[in-house]
Amino acid sequence: MPQIFVKIDAEKCKGCNLCVEACPKKILSSGRDARNKYGYRAVTANGSEDCTGCLNCALMCPDGAIAVYKRQ
Amino acid sequence: MLPLFEYTKGMREEHTSYCPGCTHGIAHRLIMEALCERGELGRAIGVVPIGCSIVAHNYMNVDMCESMHGRAPAIASGIKRVHPDNIVFTYQGDGDLASIGTGEIIHAAHRGENFTTFFINNAVYGMTGGQMAPTTLIGQKTTTTAGGRSEAANGKPLRMAEIIATIESAAFVERVSLDSPANVRKAKKATLRALETQKAGVGFSFVEFLSTCPTNWGLSPIASLEWLRTDMIPYYPLGNFKTKEIGR
Ligand SMILES: Cc1ncc(C[n+]2csc(CCOP(=O)(O)OP(=O)(O)O)c2C)c(N)n1
Ligand code: SF4
Ligand code: SF4
Questions:
Q1: CATH of region B24-126+159-241, choose from 3.30.565.10, 3.40.50.970, 3.40.20.10, 3.30.460.80
Q2: What is the pTM of this model?
């Protein structure tokens, strides 16, 4: 189980992909799933072990859709 | 579970009206994170402009006041003089601050008003549909410069941070950019230092954020960050233009 994981709030995400671009480990991908209630396709996190918790995605998100946690 | 990053309590849990990828949202978050970290959320008073961020009071979790176009510095001056112990700030776009409100910001700095201005330079009038701003770059196409801004017809863009830095009573002036995680981290530091300047009563503090407007630039959010880097930063150099010592 990955120690660090990225949580996306699919209702807040506007699908701008700034986080996808900012992630050095390519953990995030553009949304292909159903649209949220505002009509945006939220990005998804692949839950990979590669995440280092650099927070680049969260720093670039203009919409507060990203939280990052470490399992203890 | 240990949170490494959670959205700041300084922002309300609202869906913002900003376009996808617009970096107004990053600027909002940084200012609110800084106020939250300094324990000033309950005591900060913001003044919002006319422009896309006219609605910022719906999102920033502090007391806020609307202003007429370009007049936020006058209102902030009054609020700060009546409430000297509260952190007071304005949040203004380049149409608001560098065009209709140029006189207001110059004289707030000139009087050394002890508040902080966060200036969002996205090189265009966003809210009204992408007209030329005083900060629009030479050659940049806007709805009022269809062939690109020309120096002969429109002059060269205003560099507000440099202008404010020449004013004696301005105490802290820095230009930052929201184009990358590293620059967002620097922008946060400048925001904190501006607030410290105000807290110490040293004088007027000013942070210019280079920001994107994907909608009116006609670019994707990612291409907008790239344009900011390749076209805006060379004309608007990043860095600190002025820091008056905070007396101990
Ligand atoms: C007195 C007055 N003049 C003009 C306008 C029209 N107007 C609304 S917003 C705006 C410019 C906004 O641009 P900017 O300050 O760059 O903010 P942005 O929307 O790009 O964030 C203008 C000219 C107005 N509302 N009031
Ligand atoms: S940066 Fe935020 S709003 Fe943009 S795609 Fe990523 S999670 Fe969604
Ligand atoms: S019009 Fe431009 S500045 Fe306004 S919210 Fe949209 S992208 Fe942001």
A1: 3.40.50.970
A2: 0.97
